[in-house]
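Re-run requested by the PI after the first attempt was lost when the workstation crashed. Everything re-entered from the original request form. Ligand of interest: adenosine monophosphate.
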Amino acid sequence: MNLILLGPPGAGKGTQAKLLEQKLNMLQLSTGDMLRAAKDKESEIGKKIKLIMAEGNLVTDEIVIELISENIDKSSKCAGFIFDGFPRTLYQADALSELMSSKNQSIDLVIEMRVDDSQLIERIVGRYSCKECGEVYHKVNRPEQKKGVCDNCENIDGFIFREDDTEEALRTRLFNYYRETSSLVGYYYAKKKLTTVDGLLPIETIHDLLYQATKNNL
Ligand code: AMP
């Protein structure tokens, strides 16, 4: 069972992928997380990736396809993959389909998380996460319960803001979503893989919907 979570930045893909991962023994494959790890390396390619991401632009198809392919090969012991932030272009979608076929697998379900654009900026600007475990917080919507302490892992070593969670970078990310990624909604609809959920529902309600849809495909 392999699932794609599709939606603009701030739709909640990462949060939902993590919740599903825990419950269904699936593995989240987030190209954003892979690239964040790659950009911190002091290599030429690391520096290029850092700049592209900070501006909110897309890294080349070749780089992300390579990263996905490596990570699929490394992880065989799971009930399936949850693709989060990948594919983001039609080229990547075709490449993923080929990659899955070459491993006698397929994409079984694509869930579009739909959120009103005006809500996205508010959701993203003010977002931060725990340095240690990556738990995501928000200044207004979800601050940590005890100031400076992660609710999840009790780390007191601090929180980090993503460099591309500024209003300016977010506008570029949204622009790129509509220019490059949103046509994947029609692409997967035509392939009869698409289900849409309202990304503005409470996190637990969305999780229940995603869990049922995924379980029905297992
Ligand atoms: P995310 O964590 O999914 O919001 O991704 C953060 C940033 O990583 C994006 O704004 C892009 O710069 C880059 N990125 C992540 N996934 C992809 C992808 N599939 N294709 C190209 N760039 C990506």
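Saved to the shared folder this time. The first strand starts at residue 3 and ends at 6.
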